[in-house]
Amino acid sequence: MPKGIKTPRAAYSIDWLQCVCVVPGGYEPTWVTEVSPQNDKCGNHRRYQLRDGAYYIRGYEFQKEVWWDNYCVAHIACKPRQEHLPIDHGAIKLENSALYVADWFFILTDILATLKWEVRKISRVDLCCDFNYFIGGLLPSTFLRNYICKNGHSYVRIGSNKFCTYGLKDMRKTSFDSIRWGSRQNGVSVYMYNKSRELKEVKNKPYIRALWKKCDLSQALDVWRVEISITSQGLGLKSLSDQMFHTLFVDDLKEPNAPKRFFQCYAAKYFRFLRTDPTAKRKRDLKEVPLLALDANCPMRPQEISESTDCGRMEKIISKRLGQMYDEVREGNFQDRSALMDAIYKVKSVFDAHHDIKDQRAYTEDKVAYDMQSPLRSAFHLPQQEAQYYALTKARHSLAYWSNITTLISKAIINHIKNAHSASPPPRTEVRHSNTLTTYPSIPNITPKFVSDFVASFFDEWDEQHIK
Fold first, then answer.
1. What's the pLDDT at 133?
2. Phi first, then psi: what are they for 164, rounded to 5°?
3. 69, 213, 257, 411: most buried, per Cβ within 10 A?
């Protein structure tokens, strides 16, 4: 941000929080009124009541509202309708007003302790920044109108510039009230809209106005909001210092400054704009315009994971190379071609199983002991403990980790070949059992270096593209 320009006041908040939970046995709560096991800051045990409500969490049969002191504080659901979901899946969503109190995290953990549920992961969280004007006094309404209507002296977003907008046109002017960048199906969507008008025309929320007053926002001017909506695919964060991968969890949001810190972290990637210039020939020649106060030294960067394409890209490359190795051996004139093909096929099957399990993120971190079969652990020397596996998944985007994986693949193939010659050679047979390696006296032209170089060859191209 340029020196001498005053940073406008802003109010940061969490406006939506919904989590997937583990429901022991999948059983619905049997109580109507229950006293919580935890003490609040006054030393009291809160009394919660379950009531029927109009709000519906999609995908579950059992739906209830949680009330405390005559206020609805949360919505819960269990007994999933989808057959592919485990029976112990549940969900909890904090009421909007509960997110604006100082002890919202205690409310969440207190309700879960009363239910005896545990949070599995965040399914959606909205991080918000409310303000009257941008840095330098630029009005959000002016910015929005120029972004949509002008080209020569306007703005262009860093990243995708596909958007949807909502406005009003009369005889003399056109006004815009809101805009959304990113599809609702994406892991991260960004909204900017006139929050004052929404509170006036849709539903007044005194607790939001109280937050504005606390942060010295002027209510004589329109208050605008930039809202970053994050679903399960957008929870990934990568450390810029050691390239470790972290998944945003509900515990990360409990600190008072967490809404501001993580909003700035996501806005540094998803809410940045350049000022257009008719004389510029390339987009990279444009200058960035500061709009919101962002942390230039933010230690983490969002890394969205797509279940269909982005997630597992390197795994697919390795699997493809193993397939190429199999075809090359099959078409070659090696003396022990069948043994080599069988060894490579087994290693590729093990690796593909590891790839498939990792892609199913809902199960990878929660059911490691169930999903990770012993042949997979032994072939790749994967850790046996769940806590160790968390560290492994965080490091999976590291080049050093995948270099190690290729080494382990190579060793696995060589060990298969070595074991094939450890016993006395039986007579050759035309038909062999798929789970048994036939032993042969020699394998000419195939060395450990050949296998290792073949599997790891793609890293040459990867180094050129990413390690500079």
1. 93
2. -125, 140
3. 411
